[in-house]
Backbone:
């Protein structure tokens, strides 16, 4: 049994949440202001009760985690931290290195949006660092609280549960850190520790269970997937008059396409799916989805559990073995692309069985832009004349991965593709794009409705920057290459009074512009 | 050798040993801990030389801090540069003779010393006046600044304060300190400011490996900055299992399945 207090279990105390019904998003002015104490705006703990639902026993058990908060959670958590310190150089170096210089303090969208100082990256990291100091460092043992050391008690664990689920692991703070301290690594470690003592997050862990059981985050079984693709094919034929295929499990196809499952039917994701299909059709390249690997997303990264991450990724390896493709292409998905680009080769590689003339894996934007440049497909920009387009660099693409063979290809390639698809393109403020881009506010496992408040708050900087170009340049379309960004903005834009149709995919623009049927 | 000389000599050797052993252990730990996945902060260089350039810009120019916060960069950069100059000019205490360039620097004692003090005061004030910095600062952040300010003040005073007979006898200090490095210490100079300065510097050395000052070494081990962005071209890993001394099975005594890290702990860390 879990530890009992007067009336609540420890798990209940730690995960006790409160929804702020009166919460109103910040008014759009185009300015991103840093909260100041003088204005009475920095309020410690103001979002400390914004917490996700705790994962239920069956969800935890499926992933091999303790079903609920274990009795000896303090000891177990400290031991787990010790284990992770030996496994991950990032964690060991980053917990030691921080000098609390303050460079990161005004860089996190969740701090800027929530005014809660615990959302300053350094303060968030200190939540874990205080425990590290207490149990693992001489300084913490000698100086105690004076050095910022603190025992892992229920209050601290509750703060972990709140604030490590108010970090989208977007790595923006790391850009401005003199040592490159990556709060994503620290958040992942904290979530891994919490899972290991039975304190899981429902959204991420339930989805991981679905991937293991069914094959994708949305829990779409192969039969439903086939039916959806079939009806989408019919829609495509109606729209274009062409037999554009959305193949599934076709052994021997040249390209295995792995995309976030949201692309199969969520809106606006599906518009990009149509784009992929038209590109493959027009280029005359045989391709297929796989029901075994019907999910590019990998929530194993969000919870910092490498075994889970590898298990999810191994489905792609299985699909490669089954389909025997020459090439591996990944759809529009930010975190998925980070896992694919940066981790797949380690987790499920090497990709010796694929054609070495192409990068493995390849991003759909790399693939399509290459076809455009070679003239293999033609885009009619005027088809998108109703749109003035801007581009939101998805955090995990911008700072956790790359495209092309030059540094920064992840910024230029999607932009080149957009500019090839439309006539009017405007970038948002320099301080909010490229490697300084803000997270949409829903990344890293935060895309769950019970923490909608922090999602709205986290979206604030991007919303202000978007508002600015909507006002100044008449922007009415924000192109995205991430399933989470798309889902988040579709939900968040209306909260700020912006139509949800402003959010869409890059391949949605490609889909509009591509000349289908015309011979190149 | 008188009693005080013995005390200060022992103090010196103990402090330096703690510093050297402590830092070597830290560096060994950072080097030995695996980095199972490629996590360069992109856009990142695609070559080893590029990574060298990236690290150079960080270490020599504090590039990311410059992008992050300009006033802080000025304070931090001036402080570190002044510290470097002050450190260099102290080398004349260790060697019988120093190159002309060093002697030239000595002429600017006054400037570097006071610049160092001003930068420290500036960094201290930043912690107090910027609300966010005040929020995140802990006692030891101030303590370290105070320690450095005390060291610099005592050092400067012992050099420039003419009154009260506290001006240090430099040849005597040179004989004592130089002797420490040849394991043949001279008589410790009986100058209060020098002794305070010397003692506090040794205290700083002792504290160094246990404090945030390890950033001097740790900066070179930061995976987000020292990794090459070539994960598609060159496979990182693979990793074999190493049992952690902490991974002792289930968290509690009941039937909780142990979290077994299947893979991903290093045996051979592929050189970049």
Residues:
């Amino acid at each position: 049994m879990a530890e009992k207090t007067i009336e609540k279990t420890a798990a209940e105390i730690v995960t006790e949440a409160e929804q702020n019904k009166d919460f109103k998003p910040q008014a759009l002015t185009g300015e991103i202001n840093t909260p100041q104490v003088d204005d009475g705006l920095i309020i410690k703990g103001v979002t400390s009760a914004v917490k996700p639902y705790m994962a239920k026993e069956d969800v935890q058990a499926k992933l091999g985690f303790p079903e609920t908060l274990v009795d000896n959670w303090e000891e177990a958590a400290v031991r787990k931290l010790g284990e992770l310190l030996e496994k991950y150089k990032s964690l060991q170096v980053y917990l030691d290195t921080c000098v609390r210089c303050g460079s990161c303090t005004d860089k996190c969208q969740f701090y800027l949006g929530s005014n809660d100082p615990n959302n300053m990256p350094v303060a968030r990291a200190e939540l874990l660092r205080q425990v590290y100091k207490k149990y693992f460092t001489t300084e913490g043992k000698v100086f105690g609280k004076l050095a910022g050391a603190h025992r892992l008690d229920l209050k601290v664990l509750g703060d972990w549960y709140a604030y490590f689920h108010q970090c989208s692991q977007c790595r923006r703070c790391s850009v401005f850190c003199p040592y490159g301290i990556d709060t994503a690594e620290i958040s992942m470690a904290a979530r891994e520790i919490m899972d290991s003592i039975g304190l899981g997050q429902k959204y991420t862990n339930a989805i991981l269970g679905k991937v293991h059981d069914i094959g994708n985050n949305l829990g779409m079984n192969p039969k439903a997937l086939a039916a959806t693709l079939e009806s989408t094919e019919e829609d495509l034929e109606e729209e274009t008059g062409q037999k554009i295929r959305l193949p599934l499990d076709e052994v021997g196809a040249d390209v295995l396409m792995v995309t976030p499952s949201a692309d199969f039917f969520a809106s606006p994701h599906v518009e990009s799916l149509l784009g992929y299909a038209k590109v493959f059709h027009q280029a005359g390249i045989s391709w297929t989805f796989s029901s075994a690997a019907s999910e590019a997303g990998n929530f194993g990264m969000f919870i910092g559990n490498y075994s889970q991450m590898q298990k999810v990724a191994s489905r792609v390896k299985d699909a490669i073995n089954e389909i025997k493709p020459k090439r591996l292409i990944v759809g529009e998905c930010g975190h998925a692309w980070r896992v694919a680009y940066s981790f797949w080769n380690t987790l499920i590689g090497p990709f010796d069985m694929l054609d070495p003339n192409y990068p493995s894996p390849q991003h759909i934007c790399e693939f399509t832009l290459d076809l455009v440049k070679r003239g293999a497909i033609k885009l009619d920009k005027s088809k998108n004349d109703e749109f003035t387009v801007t581009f939101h660099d998805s955090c995990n693409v911008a700072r956790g991965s790359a495209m092309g063979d030059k540094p920064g290809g992840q910024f230029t390639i999607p932009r080149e593709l957009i500019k090839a698809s439309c006539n009017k393109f405007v970038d948002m403020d320099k301080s909010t794009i490229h490697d300084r881009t803000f997270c949409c506010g829903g990344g890293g496992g935060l895309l769950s409705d019970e923490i909608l408040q922090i999602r709205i708050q986290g979206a604030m900087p991007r919303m202000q920057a978007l508002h600015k170009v909507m006002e100044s340049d008449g922007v009415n379309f924000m192109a995205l290459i991430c399933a989470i960004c798309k889902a988040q903005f579709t939900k968040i834009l209306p909260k700020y009074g912006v139509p949800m149709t402003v959010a869409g995919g890059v391949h949605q623009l490609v889909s509009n512009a591509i000349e289908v049927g015309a011979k190149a | 050798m008188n009693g005080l000389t013995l005390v200060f000599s022992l103090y010196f050797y103990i402090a330096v040993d703690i510093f050297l052993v402590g830092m070597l252990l830290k560096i060994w730990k950072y080097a030995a801990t695996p980095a199972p996945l490629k996590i360069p902060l992109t856009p990142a260089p695609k070559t080893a030389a590029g990574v060298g350039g990236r690290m150079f810009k960080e270490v020599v120019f504090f590039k990311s801090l410059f992008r992050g916060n300009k006033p802080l960069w000025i304070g931090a950069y001036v402080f570190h540069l002044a510290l470097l100059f002050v450190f260099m000019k102290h080398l004349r205490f260790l060697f019988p003779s120093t190159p002309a360039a060093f002697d030239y620097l000595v002429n600017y004692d006054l400037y570097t010393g006071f610049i160092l003090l001003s930068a420290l005061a500036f960094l201290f004030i930043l912690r107090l006046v910027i609300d966010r910095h005040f929020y995140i600062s802990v006692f030891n952040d101030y303590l370290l600044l105070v320690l450095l300010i005390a060291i610099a003040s005592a050092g400067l005073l012992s050099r420039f304060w003419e009154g009260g007979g506290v001006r240090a006898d430099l040849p005597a200090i040179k004989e004592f300190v130089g002797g420490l490095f040849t394991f043949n210490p001279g008589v410790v100079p009986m100058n209060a400011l020098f002794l305070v300065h010397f003692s506090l510097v040794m205290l700083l050395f002792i504290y160094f490996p246990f404090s945030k000052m390890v950033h001097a070494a740790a900066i070179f081990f930061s995976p987000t900055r020292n990794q090459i962005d070539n994960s598609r071209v060159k496979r990182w890993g693979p990793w074999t299992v190493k049992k952690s001394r902490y991974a002792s099975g289930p968290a509690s005594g009941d039937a909780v399945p142990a979290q077994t890290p299947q893979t991903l702990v290093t045996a051979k860390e592929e050189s970049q």
About this structure: Chain A touches chain B through 95 residues (CB under 8 Å). The radius of gyration of chain A is 23 Å. The mean pLDDT of chain A is 94. Residues 171 and 184 of chain A are 6 Å apart (CA to CA).
